[in-house]
Amino acid sequence: MTPQTLDYVKKLVTRKPILFSEICREVQESGSHWQPAQIRLCLHAYAGIEVGDGQDPLVSVGTRSTTERLREAIYEAVQGQGGRPIQVARVLELLPSDLTTSVAQILAVAKIDTRLTVTGPMIRTK
């Protein structure tokens, strides 16, 4: 499984819980030759992903901290702008309404996210 396929699977799971069989179908449609047992092992090893019991379990994201949710939302907001530099104040406007934060906190979280670069009041993807 390529890193891109693994990222895609993680995005599927973070949107909503999904059946394991659907993940296997998506992985194989991406051109991967991984077998279901290999996919299941990979999912079990991935921090933050929970795999239920049974033959076709539900796969979901475990409980994430507010900082993890904020980090992901910041990345998605910046990436949604094509990766171009975006002002922190604009990122604040683009965040989901259930996240309460500040410009200072966005800057602090963005600085520790290895996928982002902070330059002054601007954030962009690497």
Overview of this protein structure:
The protein is 51% helix and 15% strand. The model has no long low-confidence stretch (mean pLDDT 87). It has two domains: 59 residues; 60 residues. The protein has a three-stranded antiparallel sheet with strand order 1-3-2. The chain is an alpha+beta fold. The chain is elongated. The longest helix is centred in the middle third of the chain and has 14 residues. The chain has six helices and six strands.
User: How confident overall, as mean pLDDT?
Assistant: 87
Low-confidence stretches are none
Portion of residues in helices? 40-55%
Number of domains: 2
Q: What fraction strand? A: 15-25%
Write the layout of secondary structure elements.
Elements: H1 3-15, E1 18-19, H2 20-29, H3 36-45, E2 49-51, E3 58-61, H4 66-79, E4 86-87, H5 88-94, H6 103-112, E5 116-119, E6 122-125
Antiparallel strand pairs: 1-3, 2-3, 4-6, 5-6
List keywords for this structure.
51% helix; 126 residues; 2 domains; alpha+beta; 6 strands; elongated; 3-stranded antiparallel sheet; 6 helices
Quick recap of the structure?
The chain is an alpha+beta fold. Helices cover 51% and strands 15% of the residues. The protein has 2 domains: 3-61; 66-125.
